[in-house]
Amino acid sequence: MKNMGFGVVLLLFICAVTAFAGAKPTPVVLSAVTVSLQGVKADTTPAKLQKGLSAIAGVTAVVVKSNTVTAKIDESKVPASQFVQVINGQLAKIQTDGKATAALTVFIDAEMCKAQKKMCGGCFTEIPTVLKKVSGISGIKLDDTGKIAAVTFAKDAKVATRVIKDALLKSSYNFIVTFSK
Known about the structure:
Number of strands: 7
Helix content: 25-40%
Number of domains: 1
């Protein structure tokens, strides 16, 4: 009887190992993002920021310029809002004058405004209205065209790009949303 119990346990173990060995790992999905920087001193800040951001788990392909950061992020590890907060934290350490800030850049268009340089009045008002309803977003600033939004977040927010995109896609304006160009 003892040998039969051992045989069953051994058989279960072999089945489990075989099943695990055949399992395919879940592919990592990286989100391409652009973060706008305001008030950054171009002489030293980009190089220091580049080094710090490249060391973050889940962040790859980081490129820092004087007024932007582009990167690919694994939002299961670092949601877009937290990536922006990390940048703000690093900016505060590098540039202590308090003038440097970061915001997620959202590139927005609409089917009806695609051929125009500027969004129509309806889109101009709809974008902030929709984004203000997303929990964790603390500020939205549209550029003069209405096609680029700078989005800031509450300190502890965990907002992924998918949440922002879904909110805008649910609008009746048929927005087209990307986070990098």
